[in-house]
Amino acid sequence: MTIPVAMTVNGKPASGKVEARTLLVQFLREHLGMTGTHVGCDTSQCGACVVHVDGRSVKSCTMLAVQAEGAKVITIEGLAESAEKLHPMQEAFRENHALQCGFCTPGMVMSAIDMVKRHNYQLDEATVRRELEGNLCRCTGYHNIVKAILAAAPAMKSAGV
Amino acid sequence: MNAPTGIGARVKRKEDQRFLTGTGRYVDDLPLARATYAHFLRSPHAHAKIKSIDISAAKAMPGVVAIFTGKDIADAKVGGLICGWVVKDKHGQPHKSPPHPVMAVDTVRYVGDTVAMIVANSHDEAKDAAETIKVDYDEKPANVDLAKALDKGATEVHAEAPGNLIYDWEIGVQADVDAAFAKAAHVTKLDLVNNRLIPNAMEPRAAAAEYDKGTGNYTLWSTSQNPHVLRLILSAFVLGIPEHKLRVIAPDVGGGFGSKIFCYNEETMVTWAASRVGRPIKWTAERSESFQTDAHGRDHVTHAELALDKDGKFLALKVETIANMGAYLSTFSTAVPTYLYATLLAGQYTTPLIYANVKAALTHTAPVDAYRGAGRPEATFVIESIVSKAAKELKVDPAELRRKNFIPSTAFPYQTPVALQYDSGNYPPIIDEAIKIADYKGFEARRAEAKSRGKLRGIGFSSYIEACGLGPSRVIGQLGGGVGQWESAQIKFNPTGNVQVLTGAHSHGQSHETTFAQVVSDKLGVPIENIEVVHGDTATTPFGMGSYGSRSLAVGGSAIMKAADKIIAKGKKIAAHLMEASVADVVFEQGTFKVAGTDKAVPLGQAVFAAYVPHNYPLEELEPGMDENAFYDPSNFVYPAGTQICEVEIDPDTGVVEIVNHTAVDDFGNIVNPMIVEGQVHGGIVQGVGQALLENAVYDKETGQLISGSYMDYTMPRADDVPSFKLGNKVTPCPHNPLGVKGCGEAGAIAAPAAVMNAVHDALAPLGVSHVPMPATPLNVWQAIHGARAAAE
After folding, report:
1. Angstrom distance (rounded) from CA B537 to CA B522
2. Domain B300-470+636-792: which topology?
């Protein structure tokens, strides 16, 4: 039995028929072919699948697709204005070499943007480290991710995003 | 002016754009038309006989396309998985080599051993069907405790390896070492367990395969660190598909750390079944499967003794180790605790006599193989722990004891007593720099200040050496390695002057697309944006060995340099023709051929164009085209070295260890991109810190159940477990490769565990604690503190 579901993903309408058990991340990856959002675990620990749902960061492996009915979903694919103009957080990750294999990166970037906004663009290192509790990275040792987020906070503020 | 892009520049990565915008392409991201999905049924028991498997109900489940069991594989005469490194024991006999079936036939030997493959129209349907398969197991006692695995009467994992012994191997002359110990002024003894780790690359292993009925060609997409070697193993030993009919593609791969070197059963099965199912098959491990079935790392039980003379000079070292192999021998498992471990036991020191005995044991646990550092972290942990312990016993400064025993810079090339010849190095300036950065002089004041807050502060050193850049093929062959260890490169100019650089190495986070392009840009003067590095596809890249053992730049980069030399040599001939000059008079500078002493000049791009449009070209003497191949086989390993200093604070009430400072100073030889090297060091340190403080693969010793089988039980390092790091570097160029580079990928993980544990022991020494097991979790630390208190009372 399938259930119809409709939402807005990166500003565009998206709909499909899903099983009741279909996770939001499955809907994004398997139904919409948007494979930028990754799955790195099966216990909602790693954070590779973080997207924004109605402006809040959500682990899309922890939410059913049908729960996102009518929601506005933003994924890593929807952040950059254009190929030339990345979101300040994406730019900060590149500038600070905050990614290596790239697998955790989409979730890191989405979590980081939410973190900066929740802290009103004002963060210190300890706060960033504590806030990254839900995102695992095995490559970078977090050093440059922390640096990138601290650099992105003022950049996001001046860019008004 | 544009930012510099050559060797030594902090060039931003070319690969970042796609990873940052969600347009990377990992195996699970592949859109394969009409794909089916595989799920593997795993053994819930550590050791059992399979009495029967009933798949009748599962076959009738919705969406099921096919189900295969071990019997199907055996009937099809599929070969077993292989161990590619023959280690000869101390009597010269090759190691025991029990069979490693692709799927279990009549016996399961660890929790996670593969029992059946279910192929369905969706992953969920395959999983649903798996739940209806009835396997009748006859449970048997499991042999899980490594310390007891070789005991008389221990349950045998394989009849082919009596007493669970894979080999009893040694290096050095025991009698000479014993004689030195007899004359020692002081002997330091150490018992340690090098805790078992689960690699946990963030991308789970995945495989997808497709069979083209028309051509008979197979394509396998795999999360592999070495697609050519994977194809070779599958073709020559396991599946028998000829190499030219099997294409292996390792696209974007999300980390490896060793765990994706090996040939696993899932990719084997997916390929084998693709032709039988007639549709593409995709499989991606769930994290719980990764925990159970990725090859694990480390897992040693070791006793070591260090003999010193009255002045603190090391006289001899002896080491006895039992190394866990798990239930089956993984691809390179046998080499890790021998040639990658015991040969490193000299460390940075002049210890003249070393004897090591390594016994490799089977247990009913997942296979154990190379994991970031592979043997070298284990060796470094032994040496650097015992040296710091000796310093404590002798009440001398741990840095001084190290300095006193360092191989002097004038002694290189330095022949160690355990086979390796270190090519270059200069260790004292490294430790001096680390001491400066870490403000070692100010430590006692910080310790006193911490004490005033009720905290125990400690400092620990770890001075490591590693042999990497695998490796000289002749040596590898003499040691029993089944493959060559050269690397390949192809530099292929297009007529319009842009370049493809094809490499047999593979990047799964290492940034080859950037650093290899820097090398070519620097050498040939081509703008970096006009250079594309291609890797990971057996159909497009020359045969190569892949990436592991910090080898890509030292070996693969050297192959690129050789190919570039050939480009220049050919370009000189073309340019000489175009300039009507003698080849001997042509020089190549910054991308342009010139005739010395004249204003004649031909840019490389013009020579390339002439090679593809050879209207004015010496066709009688020279082939058209500009496309050069090279293979590079190194004459020796490379020997990065460094010192890490870790400073911790421990809360004696809770046992919680906080790393408050961590410094690393490394000598990686010449550096192509410092930004990328620093990133490698950061990541390595945190994997080492993870081993020291957090990570532990725990099997229940009775049942063999993997207790730490998820991110809720296995403590991965998180951002708030570690500080930002302080790095420094010193350079002694590698004398035997054209770039003068050493490897940087493993160093952090090699040195960190000893630095952290030495700091923990230093912090707890005032309480009379002499040993904390690794990882130094709050529980282990708390128990050590209370054990020492109880002993004192």
Report:
1. 26
2. Aldehyde Oxidoreductase; domain 4 (3.30.365)
Q: How confident is the model at residue B400 (pLDDT cuts 50, 70, 90)?
A: very high
CA B217 to chain CA centroid, Å, is: 31
A42 reaches B (C-beta below 8 A): yes
The pairing of strands B107-108 and B353-362 is unpaired
Domain annotation covers residue A104 = yes
* Domain spans of chain B, in order of start: 32-140+202-255+260-293, 300-470+636-792, 486-632
Confidence check: pLDDT of B1 > 50: no
Asked if B300-470+636-792 and B486-632 have one fold, the answer is yes
What pLDDT sits at residue B3? 81
Bridge partners of B108, per DSSP, are B48
**Contacts with B19 from chain A: Cβ below 8 Å:** 99, 102, 105
Q: What's the domain range around A43?
A: 3-78
Query: Under a CB-based contact definition with an 8 Å cutoff, are residues B193 and B301 in contact?
Result: yes
Architecture of domain B486-632: 2-Layer Sandwich (3.30)
Q: With 80 as the cut, is the pLDDT of residue B732 above it?
A: yes
Cα separation, B355 vs B352, in Å, equals 10
Contact A105 B20 (CB under 8 A): yes
Q: Which of A15, A50, A78 is the last residue of a domain?
A: A78
Give the separation between CA B781 and CA B657, rounded to whole angstroms. Answer: 8
Given A76, A80, A100, which is nearest B509 (Cβ)? A100
- What number of CA atoms fall less than 13 Å from residue A64's CA on the CB side? 12
Backbone angles phi, psi at B248, to 5 degrees: -115, 125
Best to test chain B binding among A142, A146, A150 (most B CBs inside 10 Å)? A142
Is residue A61 domain-shared with residue A124, that is, in the same domain? no
| A104 plus A62 within the same structural domain | no
Which chain A residues contact residue B198 at CB under 8 A?
none
Render pLDDT for A35-65 as a digit per residue (tens, 0 to 9): 999 999 999 999 999 999 999 999 999 999 9
* B20–chain A nearest CA distance, Å: 6
What are the tens digits of pLDDT across the range B577-604?
A: 999 999 999 999 999 999 988 999 999 9
Q: How many domains does chain A have?
A: 2
Average pLDDT over chain B reads: 97
Q: Looking at residues B341-354, what average pLDDT do you find?
A: 98
Does domain B32-140+202-255+260-293 correspond to CATH entry 3.90.1170.50? yes
Q: How far apart are alpha carbons B522 and B512 in whole angstroms?
A: 15
- The residue in chain A having the minimum alpha-carbon distance to the alpha carbon of residue B749 is A141
Cβ within 8 Å, pair A43-B710: yes
Interface of A with B in 101-160 (CB under 8 A): 101-106, 109, 125-126, 128-130, 132-133, 135-147
Asked if A107 and A69 sit in the same domain, the reply is no
Confidence (pTM)? 0.98
The candidate with the shortest Cα–Cα distance to A152, out of A101, A105, A115, is: A115
